[in-house]
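Q: How would the structure tokens look for this protein?
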Amino acid sequence: GFSAAFDELRKIVYKDTNYQYSPLGSEETLNKITIEDIKNRWNKLLNSKRIVVSIVGDLPYKKAERILKKLSDIKSGEDFEFPVLNKNINESSCVYIQREGQQSTILIAYDAPILLSKDYFSFRVLNGVLGSGFTSRLFQELREKRGLAYAVGSFFPTRLNIGTVVTYIGTDIKKTEESEKGVREVVDKLIEGIKKEEIDTAKEKIIGIFLMDHQTRSKQAYYLGWYETVGLGYKMDKDFPNIIRKITQEDVEGVVKKYFKKSACVIVKP
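A: Here is the predicted structure in token form.
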């Protein structure tokens, strides 16, 4: 149910952009891919201007040097820049899908900041308050208090283009309308203010998950390279926890007022 809803939501929120399609492709598109397509794509990616090397661990300099020299044989291609896309949810809408199953799935998307926006980190904390984990408002209100949800929360994908936050709830078929209304009520109440305790809890969760995700060298190397690739610079991996700690109540309440104006909704119901 969730996959069906999210596939449909993508078509609405990201229409006419590359985000509209699942990274996994579809049965139709996969069957059309040829050996030549793969070779052409590989040759396009073999551009030293598109490569970031990240090394973490007790690796002798000479061994690292040998690895880097092999990479130095890759020729420079054209300068690479990520495409710039700009799209917002300008009109609230809701799509209903009938599908076999035992529960209803509801996804509601709102505009959110992109990665390089000054609002990104404040919104990351806001998402922690709204729908990340057992302490979030969505979980506490809709599952703990009202007993509406099998699963409930929100996710805020990190994107260079078209920022979006998505709230979701899986519920009993008979509680579909009540659950949709409940999610919207929780979002709408954000404008009334957010307690400092909620923000502190959200920041602790974000930093804790970040540190837990750095326990292996492979993940440490991944994050260093990823931050460099997307334009924040490798030093962001060290700065991230401190940036989150410095987010204030005013910062979080400010992004509430700026976003959550229109919504795109998909409801999958048997």
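DSSP finds eleven helices and five strands in the chain.

The first helix runs from residue 2 to 13.

Upvote if useful.
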